[in-house]
Amino acid sequence: MEPPPGAAPPAGGPGALRRNAVALGFLAPAVIILSVWIIYPTCYTIARSFFGQQGFGDFVGIDNYKALFTPFNSHNILLKAIKNSAIWILVAPAMVTAIGLIFAVLTERIRWAVAFKTVVFMPMAISLFATGVIWHVMYIKDPSQGAVNAGVGAIRSWFVSPGALSNALPSTSTLTGSPQKGYVLTKPISAGGTAQLGLTAIPPTDLSSSAKQVVVPRAKAGAIEGIVWRDFKPGGGVVGKPEQGELGIPGVHVNLLDSAGKKAGGATTGDDGAFEFKDVKGGGYKVSIDKSTFAAPFGGVSWLGSQLITPSIIIAYIWVWAGFAMVVIGAGLAAISREVLEAARTDGATEWQVFRRITVPMLAPVLSVVFITMLINVLKVFDIVISIAPGSTQSDAAVIAVQMWRQSFGGVNDFGLGSAIAVFLFVLVVPVLLLNVRRFKREV
Amino acid sequence: MTAYEAEAAPVVIKDPSEALPAKIGRAVAKLPLHIFLMFIGVLWLMPTLGLFFESLLSPADAQSNGWWKVIAHPHLSTWANYSNVWHDTDIPTALRITAEIAIGGTLLPILIAALAGYAFAWVDFPGRDWLFVVVIALLVVPLQMALIPIFTLYNKAHLYDTILGLILFHTAFGLPFAIFLLRNFFIGIPRDILESARIDGASEVRIFLKLILPLGLPAIASLAIFQFLWTWNDLLVALVMARNTTPITVDIFSQLRQFGSNIDIIAPASFLSMIIPLGVFFSFQRYFAQGLLAGSVK
Questions:
Q1: In this predicted model, what pLDDT tens digit does every residue of A211-237 receive, in sequence order?
Q2: pLDDT (tens digit, 9 = 90+) per residue, B47-79?
Q3: Chain B CA closest to residue A27
């Protein structure tokens, strides 16, 4: 290999002894620290992984590695961790790279790119641990406290209106059904008849403030008149009878069902709880309160429950690292020749074609650096997992690095198994290690 | 390498005679893009601000309100949580320990890496490339490989639960990247400068102190910011290697088990732990971005 430019005469020439002494002096601190804190531990951990919990007297061969992949034993949480890590590896690096690419391309077109990049880049300065705390607060299940669920609830309310009365029950047995199906008045009604649907168990706070005194419906030819009311007044009152002091329930959806049980009409109650089905002929109709009335209000998605915990943590992770990807890809983008892009545009290529056929292929080296960096990083992810999932869901959220810590220091204290997990982690990064070494050897 | 402030939007040659309607038309066409990016910006800022607002709510208010209520009702906010955390918990001590670890864990590896980087770049000795390959190989060794043996070693060497022990661990795992970065930067220093200094009879130590360090300052600054944030923000190493002499991340971690009930401690303490890193980030953003770009795969 050639000496780098500027080096003194090659080794072995005059002054070699002095140069070697200088090199030794300059390198000694680094060599000592790297040897004691990285190289010796690496050898130790590899050796330790073949011994059991008791120490170096307790040779177990490859049993620790078998335990890693054995389901349904006391360590089956390990397999779960490996599966979770696989999800992380498949999803997180690709998402971070893609989002970074989108942000980098879009910010090229605006004047306030620096402000935008600062904002998106900022989470990089925050510890992954604090990030976990931040997102734990974001993910609180109750929509009145957790911002994510508040947002989901707001969007949901555009499509699904919450029921007027989620807890109401029929006041008499004339109404049958369930909150899931709605309640039907069992007695059939003919044209010109009336229907009285009484509900109870309605807290005053659930009742609309526009509710007015209920009025007993009067029969009308060719129509079915009815009321839905709160069959309760302070002090009691007679059950099943609309009385002075009892309020109608506004905004309840009522359905008219024909004798075959098919929907023949619909109405919504007014402020006094009254409704009307017009142009009704014949008999055998039934009146029902629609199930939408009893729809429970949005209770929040349990982002931190066992089902969604890993995707939830990955979202928080993307929030941290998208800025990194954006800045590195943005620098790559700035290096692409403007002329090539302009030429393509002049030739009539659409923005999408320019992006797909020119920008992305030219960025390929940068994209792969970002992707590989994220890949290594994702393997070691630890802080953010244990701070978002500190309690009972930790086993559901655990990844390899978390299990390495738990098995070694988190109460189990099995250094043999812990070493095997660490070695497994190490083996996964060895391809990148070889890639780096090869790239360097090509350089010199 | 460009820092991200430096990369400008593509230069558009403006035609001075361009009609105003055309300009307005272009601005309107871009409106969806502006709205989208502003939405993303707000989305990205929200979690951090959310934690800050949460930290201002009294425990009773935090139980019944979302943090966004503070925006509409500023009277709900109080500094009482911060006052409690500052006076009644170990958080101030933890912050001091964190600072000591971060400062030591930044200066020591940079000094050692600068020495080694100079030797790798400018001193010819047998086995140099071979040794550098080892450094590159160490770049990606996960620190999990060292936790168990170093824990055992520290217990024997009385380094367990000491600031020095934590600093040395961070030094070791910061070194490969630091050596790699500085060696690559030093190699770019013009040869003539070093040659003439050597001909003038300057010693290697003198060259290192008077030439290499000042010329390498931009790379050293980027590295320092990275290493500082990395050690300041560490949780895992301190969790394993310390019990009582713990940085702030470990202190907050021990509170996490009762997340719901003591959010009035967790939120302000977490925010306190973020102030210094955010300050470093906003003051040295430029170096931060440069360091990212100069670095490769860690």
A1: 888 888 888 888 888 888 888 777 767
A2: 999 989 988 888 888 777 788 888 888 888 888
A3: B116
From A154, A321, A161, select the one nearest B68 (Cα to Cα): A154
Distance of residue B159 Cα from the nearest chain A Cα, in angstroms: 13
Q: C-alpha B175: how far from its chain's center?
A: 15
User: Is A35 a member of any domain?
Assistant: no
CA distance from start to end of chain B: 18
Phi, psi (degrees; rounded to nearest 5) at B284: -120, 25
Share above pLDDT 70 across residues of chain B, in percent, rounded to a whole number: 89
State the residue range of the domain holding B142. Answer: 86-294
Q: What is the per-residue pLDDT across B254-264, written as a single tens digit (0 to 9) for each?
A: 887 666 668 88
Please tell me whether residues A135 and A189 are part of one structural domain: no
Q: How confident is the model at residue A5 (pLDDT cuts 50, 70, 90)?
A: very low
Q: Are A80 and A183 contained in the same domain?
A: no
Name chain B contacts of A109, Cβ cutoff 8 Å: 9, 30, 33
Q: Which of A215, A157, A224 has the alpha carbon at shortest distance from A190?
A: A224
* Whether residue B154 is found in the same domain as residue B236: yes
Contacts of A312 in chain B (CB under 8 A): none
Please tell me the predicted confidence (pLDDT) of residue A8. Answer: 47
User: Of A64-73, A273-282, B223-232, where does mean pLDDT reach its minimum?
Assistant: A64-73
User: Which pTM was predicted?
Assistant: 0.80
Nearest CA-CA distance, residue A433 and chain B, Å? 5
Longest dimension (CA), chain A: 121
Distance in Å, alpha carbon of A227 to nearest chain B alpha carbon: 37
Q: What is the CATH classification number for the domain harbouring A385?
A: 1.10.3720.10
Interface residue B88 vs chain A (CB under 8 A): no
Coil, strand or helix at A267? strand
- Domain shared by B53 and B147, yes or no: no
Kindly report the nearest CA distance between residue B190 and chain A, in angstroms.
8
Residues A361 and A394 placed together within one structural domain of the fold:
yes
Beta-carbon neighbour count of residue B129 at 10 Å?
14
3-class secondary-structure state, position B211: helix
Q: Which helix (H) or strand (E) holds A266?
A: strand A263-268
State the pLDDT confidence band at A44, using cuts at 50, 70 and 90: very high
Give the pLDDT confidence score for residue A3 in this predicted structure: 43
- The rounded distance, in Å, linking the Cα atoms of A197 and A249 is 10
Give the DSSP per-residue string, A138-207.
HT-SSTTT-HHHHHHHHHHHHHSPPPS-SS-EESSTTEEEETTTEEEESS-B-TT-EEEEEEE---GGGS
Across the interface, of A30, A147, A334, the residue whose CB is closest to B112 is A30
Q: How many helices and strands in chain B, by DSSP H and E?
A: 16, 0
> What average pLDDT does this structure show over B216-235?
91
- SS3 call for B143: coil
Please compute the mean of the pLDDT values over residues A256-260 and round it to a whole number: 83
The string of pLDDT tens digits covering residues A109-164 is 888 988 999 999 999 889 888 898 899 888 888 888 888 888 888 888 777 665 65
Last residue of a domain, one of A294, A329, A354: A294
Which range marks the domain in which residue A419 is found?
63-151+303-443
| Percent of residues, chain A, with pLDDT higher than 70 | 92
Query: Which residues, 6+ apart, have CB-to-CB distance to A429 below 8 Å?
Result: A376, A379, B140, B141, B142
Domain count, chain A: 2
- Mean pLDDT score of chain A: 84
In A, minimum Cα distance to B33 occurs at A106
| H helices present in B123-162, as ranges | 128-138, 144-157
Answer for the pair A317, A326: CB distance below 8 angstroms, yes or no.
Answer: no
The token duo for B39 is 């939405």
B293 chain-A contacts, CB cut-off 8 A = 327-328, 331
